[in-house]
Amino acid sequence: MHRVSPLPSFLRFFALTIVAASVVVSVSAATLHGQPRSVDGRVRRPVSVNADSAGMGPVVGTWVTLHRVGKDTAGPIDSIRTDGQGHYRFRWTPFGAADGVYFASTTWGGIAYFTPPLKNLDARGDDAEITVFDTTSVRFQLTVKGRHLIVGKADTTQFRTVIEVFELSNDSLRTLVATDTTSPMPTWSISIPASALDVRANEGEISPDAFVAGPGRVSVYAPIAPGIKQVAFSYKVPNSSFPLSLRAEGGAVVFEVLLEEPQGFVTGKGFANVDPVTLEGRNFRRFLSQDVQSNAELILELPSSGAPARNLDIAGLLLAIGMLMMVVLMRSVQRRAANRVAVEPSLRPRESDAPMHERLAQEIAALDETFARIVEPSDMVKKAYETRRSELKGALGAALAEAGKRT
Q1: Measuring CA to CA, which residue among 43, 15, 40, 39 is closest to residue 338?
Q2: Cβ-based neighbours of 390, under 8 Å, separated by 6 or more
Q3: Which residues contact 329 (CB under 8 A, 6 or more apart)?
Q4: pLDDT tens figures, 168-191
Q5: Contacts 24+ apart (CB under 8 A), 265-273
Q6: Which of 154, 394, 400, 152 is nearest to 274 (CA)?
Q7: In this predicted model, what pLDDT tens digit does every residue of 136-168 receive, in sequence order?
Q8: How far apart, in whole angstroms, are the C-alpha atoms of residue 90 and residue 78?
Q9: What are phi and psi of 340, to 5 degrees?
Q10: 230, 165 contact by CB (below 8 A)
């Protein structure tokens, strides 16, 4: 096998993202520490069958690298080329601290693609499969599956911290990249209030180097592969900016607004005031809207607050829970996108044919599995897990009742 060079900086960022998505190493992984392990997988990509359809074909002769990322060390372990069927195989014995995470990666068209963390003694099947995609710089619309906007109380300087979290879906079979020109076009961009200050990328799936903030706008220049990618950033706005008018640029399948002000309110078509949430002793009013149209207007009405705010620590919670769910959701969407017949990047994949109650049951199972991997979860994470599970369980009950009526 070929011994590889130190982990490149761009690959290190993606590696650390995988670790962040895992939050902490599971107890089972620590139990397997020191035992010989293996991964037997393959690298595939969409290929044209004819003018109207596509299938999956092997990627032959590409380098696949096995990585380890932990608190003590991070870097590649070994690499090998795929065979004529796109297969690769590694055997290794875990070393270093027990919290080390192992995964395999390959690069296609200059873009790195990864397996999930390899947590079994013998990883194979979906856990070891890497799907790569050709790239395109031809801009097309990304679907905003979820948008979450969190507004804290005014601090002692009369500024409010605003956090925005997006789940973007590339519904094509190509990885969208920034144009390679003197003035490159971003892969995604969104408007922010003109009064926003101190705009910065939060921990998430986008490298800060690929995030650019300008007057009234933020832009992302990172590649966006088929599937779902999370983008998160924060900024501050003066208290004098409220009531604040915002545009739902690009729309959203689900738009959620959390307001720490007890008298805060959201005005906008389709937004409903739902049950509030309490996190670490901080209360948030919660407003939801579904299938929000592009450029729909919403107004945030926030009266002045006499109590200064603490730091808006909820950002870490939202990103942690969001990343955990994205690991599950990204794999599902990528596999579904890879099997669909359309090849045009502007076309969206077909929705699952599974009944709603089955999909909800699967989501509950995925949520439970994800939560079970967290060692000593904080009270804040427990609360978020319990709240989300309760919502899903209620929806499942309603879906089962509806299915019973049909039969």
Answers
A1: 43
A2: none
A3: 228
A4: 999 888 999 988 777 888 999 999
A5: 265/300, 265/301, 266/298, 266/299, 266/300, 266/301, 267/298, 267/299, 267/301, 268/296, 268/297, 268/298, 268/299, 269/293, 269/296, 270/296, 271/298
A6: 394
A7: 998 888 999 889 999 988 888 889 999 998 989
A8: 8
A9: -80, 160
A10: yes
Tell me whether strands 188-191 and 217-220 are parallel, antiparallel or unpaired: antiparallel
Comparing C-alpha atoms, which of 95, 60, 66 is closest to residue 78? Answer: 66
Q: 62 — phi, psi (to 5°)? A: -90, 150
**What are the CA-CA distances from residue 28 to residues 25, 35, 77, 383 (Å)?**
8, 12, 22, 24
The DSSP secondary-structure symbol of 376 reads S
Q: What is the largest CA-CA distance in the chain?
A: 68
If one counts every other C-beta atom within 10 angstroms of the C-beta of residue 245, the result is 13
- Three-state SS annotation for 266-316: EEECCCEEEEEEEECCEEEEEEEEEEECCCEEEEEECCCCCCCCCCCCHHH
What tokens were used for 350?
């077909």
Instruction: Give the residues across from 76 on adjacent strands.
Output: 67
3-state helix vs strand vs coil in the chain, percent to 5: 25, 40, 35
Structure-token match 């359309």, residue found? 342
Query: Helix, strand or coil for residue 43?
Result: strand
- Tell me if 317 sits within 8 A of 277, measured CB to CB: no
CB 207 within 8 A of CB 112: no
Q: How far apart are CA 224 and CA 135, in angstroms?
A: 9
pLDDT in tens, 269-295: 889 998 887 766 678 899 999 899 999
Listed in sequence order, the residues at least 6 apart from 166 whose beta carbon sits closer than 8 Å to its beta carbon are 144, 146, 147, 148, 190, 230, 231, 232
- What's the chain's Rg over C-alpha atoms? 22
Q: How far apart are the first and last CA of the chain?
A: 58
Burial class of 361 by CB neighbour count within 10 A (0 to 12, 13 to 18, 19+):
middle
Residue 213 and residue 200 in contact, taking contact as beta carbons nearer than 8 Å: yes
> Is the pTM higher than 0.85?
no
